[in-house]
UniProtKB/TrEMBL annotation:
Pfam families: HD_5 (PF13487). SUPFAM superfamilies: HD-domain/PDEase-like (SSF109604). The chain crosses the membrane at residues 55-83, 104-122, 128-146, 158-181, 187-207. Residues 213-408 form the HD-GYP domain. This is Nucleotidyltransferase with HDIG domain. It comes from the Bacteria. PROSITE patterns: HD_GYP. Residues 1-18 form the signal peptide. It comes from Streptomyces syringium.
Length: 436
């Protein structure tokens, strides 16, 4: 456990203590806990942890939440989590975290179910759906929190990283777990509940395949970003910031769900084509020759080819290809004008220029945010889409930028992006050699 960052250690410790507090009332004398049901559900939970992809763990957790009081429901998942499969060290810490996570989710679902099912006129099914959604949200939030803490990322990234498909598992598993709970309490007992739980393993596998696909997509993006990092450290840091700024703009434009994530990926990967640009040009300290500039200006097309065939990056690919286009048609590679430029590219163009102006370079200091925004507004209509500029301004007014440019840019090897168009003004040309 001590190999983990301090924030992650604190999160694990806090989750374990919170789970212990939730389960403690069940251990009091005279609590009236149906220990036979706890033991039976815990045994099913242990078996579920041994199934491929733990495809029954969530349904068993919900069934326990509907059958047992909150404190007892918090105990059901603990044995299975403590003996479950763990593929990476630290094994003991991961098992402890998994037990606390499942315990808190089970307690929350049981508590919410008890509260909502007691409302006059409210039948069990709506309460089950709400409880299932709460359970899914708790599991996803804790998963995201430990990942953010372990990777030492800002905690505000937790919310943008939360899965958007939480409603599906709740709608599928909530009613089925309620049926299993009804059978469990019925005349035929726990054996009939297994007839419901076992088919749920199949539905769990189907839902899990979607999660695996999203995980594979994230791994593909990480691999591409890592390739950029190996080529040029500045470009990676720049792209990550452009991804954040693109996300801010997209939210202000009312984008949600998958579209929002697409805009973030477009920003993160917009300069992926620089993998194909000679390193000596990326790191050149001084003006570029016309020939060198032509080579640099091929990076959008290189990037477009690199991500060709990756289906989930379709819209992001358009931004990669066209983020250097300008509304007046003086950009590259195709000289598109106005709304012929894809919306994703217009979002990334503004985010890209903003970060270029507010970042330290080997030959220039970062501009204040207000100065960069003023320059973007001045160039709106000729180079940038005014809607995107206005959206970024509103987002920064409300949320702030909060990113501090590195005090020493020498380690960036002057690998500049120089994305603010030199034709906009001498001040806006971030770099002495024009765009890079």
């Amino acid at each position: 456990m001590w190999a983990l960052p301090a924030t992650a250690r604190a999160l694990v410790t806090g989750a374990v203590l919170a789970a212990a507090l939730c389960a403690a009332p069940a251990l009091r004398a005279g609590a009236g806990v149906p220990w036979a049901a706890v033991a039976q559900l815990a045994a099913v939970g242990v078996a579920a942890e041994r199934l491929p992809r733990r495809s029954l763990a969530f349904p068993v957790l919900l069934t326990a939440a509907f059958v047992l009081p909150p404190a007892a429901a918090a105990l059901v998942a603990v044995p299975g989590a403590l003996v479950g499969r763990v593929e990476r060290p630290p094994v003991a810490t991961r098992r402890l975290w998994h037990a606390a996570q499942q315990s808190l989710a089970g307690w929350a679902a049981s508590y919410v179910f008890a509260v909502f099912s007691s409302f006059p006129g409210l039948h069990a099914l709506p309460a089950a759906l709400v409880a299932a959604l709460v359970c899914a949200v708790v599991l996803a939030a804790l998963d995201g929190a430990i990942q953010v803490a372990a990777e030492r990322r800002p905690f505000h990234e937790l919310w943008s990283g939360l899965p958007t498909g939480l409603l599906g598992p709740a709608l599928v598993h909530g009613p089925a777990a309620l049926l299993a709970a009804a059978l469990w309490r019925g005349a035929y007992g726990p054996a009939t509940a297994l007839l419901v739980l076992l088919p749920m393993a199949l539905s769990g596998r189907l839902l899990d395949s979607g999660r695996r696909e999203r995980a594979a997509q994230q791994a593909a993006v990480r691999a591409l970003v890592q390739a950029v990092d190996l080529k040029d450290r500045y470009t990676r840091a720049h792209c990550e910031r452009v991804g954040r700024a693109s996300l801010l703009i997209a939210r202000e434009l009312g984008m949600t769900g998958e579209r929002l994530e697409t805009m973030r990926l477009a920003g993160v990967l917009h300069d992926i084509g620089k993998i194909g640009v000679p390193t000596r040009l990326l790191r050149k300290d001084g003006p570029l020759t016309p020939e060198e500039r032509r080579v640099i200006e091929l990076h959008p097309e290189y990037g477009h080819e690199i991500v060709r065939g990756i289906a989930f990056l379709d819209e992001a690919r358009a931004a990669i290809l066209h983020h250097h286009e300008r509304l007046d048609g003086t950009g590259y590679p195709h000289g598109l004008t106005g709304h012929h430029i894809p919306e994703s590219a217009r979002v990334v163009a503004v985010a890209d220029a903003f970060d270029a102006m507010t970042s330290n370079r080997g030959y220039s200091r970062a501009r204040p945010v207000h100065a960069a925004l003023a320059e973007l507004h001045r160039c709106a209509g000729s180079h940038f889409d005014p809607r995107m500029v206005a959206a970024l301004t509103r987002a920064l007014d409300r949320r702030g930028w909060g990113l501090v440019a590195p005090a020493d840019a020498s380690d960036l090897a002057v690998s500049v992006s120089r994305n603010v168009p030199s034709g906009c003004s001498a001040e806006a040309a971030v770099g002495r050699g024009g765009e890079r």
